[in-house]
Amino acid sequence: MVTLLKRWPAQALFSALTFAATLLLCSNQAQAATSLQATVDKNPVMLGEELLLQIELDEKVSGHQLDFSVLANDFNFSAPAISQSMQIINGRSSQSTRWQLSLFAKKTGNFVIPAFEIEGLRSDPIPLTVVAADPNGTGSDELFIESSLSSNELYVQQLVYYDVKIFFNGDLQRGSLSQPELPGATIEQLGKDIEGSELVNGQRYQTITRRYTVIVQQQGSFDLAAPWFKGEMIDRQSSRYDYFAKTKTVSAQGQALKLTVKPMPDNFQGEWLVSELVALTEEWTPPGNELTQGEPVTRTITLTALDLADHQLPDLNIPLPAGIKSYAEQPQSKKAERNGRLVAQKVFTSAVIATQNGDLVLPAVRIPWWNSKTNELAYAELPERTLKVALNPSQPEAQVNAEAVVAAVTPANEINAQPQSVSPWFWSYSSTTMLLLWLTTLALWLLPKLPRPQSAQAIAPQPQLKFSSRKLKAACLANNSSEAAAQLVQWASQGIDSQIVRLPQLLQHLPDCELRHEVEKLCHQPYQPTAAAWQGQPLFEAFAKYKHVQQLPVKSQLRPLYPG
Question: Within its chain, how far is the Cα of 33 from the centroid?
Answer without folding.
Answer: 55
